[in-house]
Specification:
The structure is a single chain. With 325 residues, the chain is α/β, with parallel strands linked by helices. It is built from ten helices and nine strands. The protein has a seven-stranded mixed β-sheet with strand order 5-4-3-6-8-7-9, sandwiched between helices. Helix 7 runs parallel beside helix 10 and helix 8 crosses helix 9.
Length: 325
């Protein structure tokens, strides 16, 4: 009887090992070693609404020509985008009045929207000029990470901020991120990231959530810490500031194009030994979120496992020479 039981256990272990090996082989073979950085021809241009003229975007590999680029990924944000744009432009215009040498641009990246997100962005291009507001319209929906990447690759700024289109973050908090950036990037190699953080608001958020949603949130945070990123309490806040060189290195290596892209971005930043800091910001829940409460958490949890696994088995490679290219 004992011999039979031992044989069954051994057989089961062998089956598990074979299944795991097959899964790893499938993941390895189905993964692209380096991300696909190609874009459609139409994504190379932005529209000058007043002249109805198409103009080619610059490249992130060009020398910077403005102080700040704000990348706003937007998917079906016709209704929520104006409030965010008004707040951001009010702040930036006031900043420019106080410091005339300060220059900025906002890049609205329409991630394949089905509504009038692009037309809404063009209203601001018409009002403030395409030197300050440009719209990049993607041929198809790529996901938030994919939209942010193409915005970064079309940017002119010395510093690059990506901010959510819903306006959940108060734009005036950009000053906090900028101050922290100047602190951590002083006399460094110009590779730095500053993350806006909602971690200080977590206690209040937990009080309003169900026990199940709190469990999912805590589980996700544990997976982030265990698998990918340590030392950052809030990896998902959509308000992050990067140096131009950091954006080149990180987004040239970024594979994930959907919700978990922030985690991979910070994982890569730690792999490159970049300076990373976290700053508490004001944040409020805005109706109309694209996140599906339970499904999105589970999807991101799966993505975290795959991010770590693909790097561990070498299915995803890191191009450490990208800055020099």
């Amino acid at each position: 009887m004992e011999c039979t039981l031992t044989a069954i256990v051994c057989a089961l272990l062998l089956i598990v090992i074979v299944v795991l090996v097959v899964v790893l082989v499938v993941i390895y073979k189905s993964s692209e070693a380096h991300p696909n950085l190609r874009r459609f021809d139409s994504e190379e241009y932005f529209l000058e609404p007043k002249k109805n003229e198409k103009i080619k975007f610059p490249s992130i590999h060009d020398p910077p020509s403005v102080d700040l680029t704000v990348v706003v990924p937007a998917y079906n944000e016709e209704e929520r985008l104006p409030a965010m744009m008004n707040e951001a432009i009010d702040y930036l215009e006031e900043r420019q009045k106080m410091t005339p040498s300060f220059s900025y641009e906002i890049l609205v990246v329409d991630d394949g929207s089905k509504d009038k997100t692009t037309a809404t962005g063009h209203l601001y291009s018409s009002k403030y000029g395409v030197d300050k507001v440009r719209v990049l319209t993607l041929e198809k929906n790529r996901g938030k990470g994919g939209a942010v990447r193409l915005g970064m690759f079309s940017a002119r700024g010395k510093l690059l901020l990506f901010a959510d289109a819903d306006g959940a973050s108060q734009f005036k908090d950009y000053r906090k991120l900028e101050t922290e950036m100047l602190k951590i990037n002083k006399n460094s190699n110009n590779l730095a990231v500053v993350c806006g953080s909602r971690a200080h608001l977590e206690k209040d958020a937990i009080a309003e959530r169900s026990l199940f949603r709190t469990f999912l949130m805590k589980g996700f945070h544990f997976l982030v810490w265990f698998l990918c990123v340590r030392g950052i309490k809030d990896t998902q806040c959509g308000f992050k500031l990067l140096t131009r060189d950091a954006a080149i290195v990180l987004f040239s290596n970024l594979h994930v194009e959907r919700w978990a892209f922030d985690v991979e971005m910070l994982y890569l930043a730690q792999c490159f030994n970049m300076r990373i800091s976290e700053v508490a910001i004001t944040w409020q829940e805005i109706e109309g979120s694209k996140m599906v409460p339970v499904w999105s958490w589970l999807q991101m949890g799966k993505d975290l496992l795959l991010i770590r696994l693909r790097y561990v088995i070498g299915a995803w490679k890191i191009n450490s020479k990208v800055k020099k290219e």
